[in-house]
Amino acid sequence: MWMLLVGLLLWSLVHFIPSATPSLKQSWIAKTSDKGYMLSFSILIISSLCLIVFGWRAAPIEFVYTLPQSTKPIAVVLMLIASMLFAAAKQKTNIKRVIRHPQLTSVLVWSIAHLILNGDSRSLILFGGMCLWSLWQIYFINKREGAWSKPEPVSWRNEIKVLLVGGVIFVILALIHPYLSGVAIV
């Protein structure tokens, strides 16, 4: 369980550097250059992901709660929404007129969907941790950036593109999920 916790802590702390402590980021860049910062940031994030994956697999499973099977469709719909939000993050879309941080919101929705389906101790740590991380990250970024300036409206064609890309992401995740976690989505 310690690897999972260390991985989540490393993931969170490294991501909090640019959002919560921009001066530390600038100091890091000054010491290592832009490329050095990006390389070391990437290495730390990849290391945190490895710790999370290996920690997840090694963690003992102790069941804390089990929700009724009837909640599975809710979780699947939430995963579809998370895929759409993830797709919207790098696109010009009206979703950004409603949700300031679609990518972080997608992590939040993804976490909630997984907490609905998984009531074991390692799931509570992983998905609960990612849920809290995304909320804190949104808070820190909002604090750093100040008042939100909503983007201009865009064409409905952009929305269709986001829906299609989000649908493709969802299908790909549904197909590879059994290989990643041993559990089929649908």
Automatic annotation (TrEMBL):
Transmembrane segments: 38-59, 71-89, 124-141, 162-180
A matching Pfam family: NnrU
Domain NnrU: 3-184
Membrane topology: Multi-pass membrane protein
Domain of life: Bacteria
Keyword line: Membrane, Transmembrane, Transmembrane helix
Subcellular location: Membrane
The name this protein goes by in its record: NnrUfamily protein
Species of provenance: Shewanella woodyi (strain ATCC 51908 / MS32)
